[in-house]
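Problem 3 from the worked examples.
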Amino acid sequence: MNLRKIGIGLATLFVMFCVFFTAAFGFIVATNFENIGKAVNIISLIKIHSLKELSAAELLEGSMKGMIEALDDPYSAYLEPEVFKEITERIHGTYAGVGLLITIAEDDLLTVVSPFKGSPAHKAGILSGDIITAIDGRNTSDMDLETASNLMRGKPGTKVTLTVYRKNKGEKVYEITREVIEIPSVDGEIISENPDVGYISVSMFNENTGKELAEKVEELRLKGMKALILDLRNNPGGALQAAVEAADVFIDSGPIVHIKSKYNTEVYKAKKGKTDFPVVVLVNEGSASASEILAGAIQDTGAGILVGKKTFGKGVVQSLFKLEDGSAVKLTTAKYLTPDKRDIHKKGINPDVVVEMGHEETAQALLNAPDTEKDAQLKKALEILSKKLQ
């Protein structure tokens, strides 16, 4: 072992470490010199004694990940360049993978919020509420969201094995073939059994959702629609601006959402004009984030009636900050409040009319939507709208 080289390397690393932290956090360095000394000591121990060799850059990257982990926030993460690129592609509506939105539940379990409709995971039978215990045999306990997401993504045509636990059903192993996930966020039609009622499902919110929703509403109106069922069940959310634009289709004036950050509160207001027909919105425990912004805005403003089950309860907003090397930091930077300033984070939104449906029952109904025979929540929505149209 060349101790002289190690000593020079440690000195260089120490300078890099101090420059990095002094540039970013001068005051913190001054008031936490003891802890910084401890950090340098740990670096020294790793360089001298650890069997695994790490470069200075790798050690510094590890320290950056550690800072994010100290937030104890499942939605904040350090994103390596390839992961950030894939997230950007997903926001724009396309990526390669299995089509799942996942979260770390309060019990630290990797949990499915919702599969995207028509995705490989959806077709395989994975449901909201399922717990992913392993990905390609790798245990997910203590795994962060970005690592899990990255393991499930890959080249189209390749396979990934997910071990999934479902309450009262036990574990099951799914071998799923990855596909390029095209996410047409809005779909709809006139309900054949009741041609006065239109049905529109929104599977997620990407940059085109607001425009697509407005166009679909107008298309169905021209076909004779006099009332609308808007289906947000198992909608995992997406872009905040898309949710605001979607809400603007139904609300004539006033707040759509309040975004409360560390230093100020920004209010997004309706601009376009209220629809002139009754609306029922279907929600469930898979309705999260941006879909809750839309559902909460419609409920608080009286623009429609919510039917189904309590929503997921993700009421915080993340921002992506791109770094020079193509990596990025994702931070929870704000929480959103409904027009009546309700904080729904970890609480969800209670529907106006509760109609119970199980995970598998809902998944099957969505696959065949609009299923007026087997979909109890849809049937209740039709019943409500039929009375309003009398």
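Problem 4, a separate protein:
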Amino acid sequence: MSDAPAAVRLLRRGRALEAATLGWNVAGVVVLAVAAVAARSVALGGFGLDSLIEIGASIVVLWELAGTGAQRQQRALRLIGAAFVVLAVYLAVQSSVVLAVGFHPDRSPLGIAWTAVTATVMFFLAAGKSRTGRALHNPVLVTEGRVTTIDGILAVAVLVGLVLNAAAGWWWADPLAAYVLAYYGGREAWEILRHHSGA
């Protein structure tokens, strides 16, 4: 019973971390949509789609932390896994087309600024989720912390592509960054669907 107040505090912290992730990604969808259209960037568009999927992942974890039924959680996780499959396929095809036709995206100062800040925020949130999830012995929160870490890695990959395009004119760095997104999207889909493929 003496651990009950600590558990309540940890649950509150876990919900706060997920709510912060959710809010950031909701804002990110808007910012990335504007930046992607303005720069005609495949990588920024793909990162925006990834943010949509991360919104779904955060909602799933908030449900789980609220004590929502396991069957509903399993269904939601399978949907997120399927969404990652669609994202990976879309980015792989779109990036291949862009490379084949030699399409040159424009520079994106907004995209560079947003992805740089997003990488920092995601790594900070991921560390908090990992610590809180381990303290709660909650594998769902720990796993979602890993997804948030990957989100930070993807932000770095997109940032590198945008900077190389802006600074050196390496237009092909943008679709290559999208390939990185496609790889991690496919890997996440495999992990989620492999562990949550039951009825």
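Solution to problem 4. Residues 4-195 form one domain. The first helix runs from residue 4 to 39.
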